[in-house]
Amino acid sequence: MNKTFCIAGPVRPDKHYCLSQRLNSQELHQLIDEEKYFILHAPRQTGKTTAILNFVQQLNSEGKCRALYVNVEPAQAAGDDVERGLRTVITSFKKNIGNTFGMDDPAYQLALRFEATPTISGGALEDFITQWAGITPSPLVLFIDEIDSLVGDTLLSVLRQVRSGYESRPEFFPQSICLIGVRDVRDYLIWSEKEQEKIRGGSAFNIKAESLRLGDFSPEEVAALYKQHTDATGQIFTPEAVEYAFYLTQGQPWLVNALAYQACFRDVKDRSLSITKEVIDRAKEVLILRRDTHLDVLIDRLNEERVRRIIQMLVLGEGEEIHISTDDLSYVRDLGLVTQKGLAIANPIYQEIIPRELTFVQQAKLEEMVDRRPFIRADGSLNIPLLLEKFGQFYREQSSAWIEVLEFKEIGPHILLLAFLQRIINGGGSIHREYALGRKRVDLLVIWKNQRIVIELKIRRGEKGILEGLIQTAGYMDASHATEGHLVVFDQSLGKSWDEKIFTRQEQVEGKTITVWGM
Question: pLDDT, tens digit, for every residue of 223-232?
C-alpha cells in the first residue's frame, strides 16, 4: 500500500509518512527506572498518541516491564457521575489490555470481573490496578491518554486514586504512570459538584515528578517528512516550498501534514510535477476555507472568555499594560493558539483563520450589501482609496448597529474593516496579517496582482499616536516592498461628532507617501 500524509487519528507507520523519534527515549527510560509519575502534554493533533504508542511498543519489546496505553476519553460522557465514569475507564483498560496482551491474559479476566460488578465503588480503579500489579510478575507502566477529557468529580476521582496508590509502587501499583493531555495537570481547575468548589489539579495529583511537552516540528523535521514522499514517489518538494510550509505552520504537525496531503494527493497528483511554493500557498487557502476538524476545534476556543480576552488584545496590537493572568496565558499556550515565548498568534495559518472567523458573519452580510466591481479599475488594479472612502461612509452609518451585536466589541472597528476588505479582495488577491501584543497596531499587507498595499490599523490616542502610526507604516512599507501605504485611525472618543472624527490627508514620511484615514 502506498503511504500518505496523516491528517486524522494516530500515525500508522505502515500507512503514513512519519518521524519516528519525537520523544526523548532516554529521558523517558530514566523516569521509568526512577519510578516517577509524570505528565506529557501538547496541543491537540501534535503527535502525542502516535509517539506514546510507539514507545509503549518499544518498552514491551524490551521485556523489562509491561507497558499499557489506554485512552479514557469515552468516560467524558459520564460527567460528574463517578460510578459510571469509573466503569467506563475500567472498560477502556479491559479493551486495551486485550488488544495489547490478548484476551487470555489474567489482567483481561480481572478487568472483566470488575466491569461486571453490579455496583462500582469509589475506589474501584485503584483496586483494579492494585490487583493487576499484584498478579503481574513484571512492573507495570501505564500511559493514560486524554486525561483532561474527563469532567469534574470523575476526573478528581481518577487523579486521587492514582495518587493514593503511589506509595504501593512498584509491587502493588504501577512503577511509573504518565498522564497525557493538552494541558499540564497542575493547571487544571476542576469544579467538584460534590464539594461545591474548584479544585486545582495539582493538589489532586501532587506526585508529579516531571512535566514534558511534545514540541512542534523543526525545519529539518519538516524537510525530512516531505523527503519520505519524494523517496517513495519521486515527486519533489522545492526548497522554497519546504521553507514556506514551515513558515506557514511553524512546524505544527497536523498543519504540516495537511498542507502536504492537499498539495500531493489532491492538487498535484502527477508525480513528475514538483510541489512548489505556489502549490503550498494554494493548499493553505483550501485548508482555511474547508475548516477541517483541527481548525474547527481551534475556532471553537474563541468562544471561551479567557481565550477571547487575549485574542482581542492581540488583534488590537495593544494591551501589554493590561494584566493577563498566568492561568489564562498558560491555557492559550497549551492549546497551541499562541507562541510559547512572547505573545503572538502561533503561526501564519492561525493568523489567517482567526480574523476570517471573527468576520465570517459580517462578510456574509456584506456580500448582499457591497458590490466589489466598482473597486476594480479598468486596468484590473485595486482602487484602495475608493474602498477606504466607501468603508468610511459605511462605518459612519452602520458601525453602532453592527458592533453592538459582536461578541468581540472591543475590536469591532477592526472586525468590520477586515470583513469589508475580505469581501472585496476574496478571489482576486490576498490579505496577510501580522499582529502581536505590544506593537500597538495591526499590520495588513494586501497583495493584488502587482500591487502590494500596506494598511495599518490603530486606535487614536491623540496626534502623537498618529505620528507613531505614520513611522510604523513607513517602516512596514519599506520591509514589505509596498507600492502604496494607508494608516486607518479609529477614534473612539466620546463627545466628538462624526465630522470631527472622519478625515483624509496625505503625509510624507521617510520618503513614503501615506494616506491617513480618520474614522
Answer: 999 999 999 9
Cell numbers found for residue 166? 503511589
Residue 323 CB: number of other CB atoms within 10 A?
7
Angle at 394 between CA 389 and CA 395, to 5 degrees: 95
Counting beta carbons within 10 angstroms of the beta carbon of residue 436, is it exposed (0 to 12), middle (13 to 18) or buried (19 or more)? middle
The letter for the amino acid at 98 is G
The model carries a pTM of 0.81
Task: Give CA–CA dist 219/7, Å, rounded.
Answer: 19
The SS3 of residue 517 is strand
Roughly how many angstroms between the first and final C-alpha of the chain, as a whole number? 60
C-alpha cell, 147: 486525561
Q: Are 77 and 152 in contact (CB under 8 A)?
A: no
DSSP 204: H
| E-assigned strand segments in 1-119 | 37-41, 66-71
Q: At what angle do helices 348-358 and 360-369 cross, to 10 degrees?
A: 60
Return the number of other C-beta atoms located less than 10 Å from residue 383's C-beta: 14
Number of CB atoms found within 10 A of residue 207's CB: 16
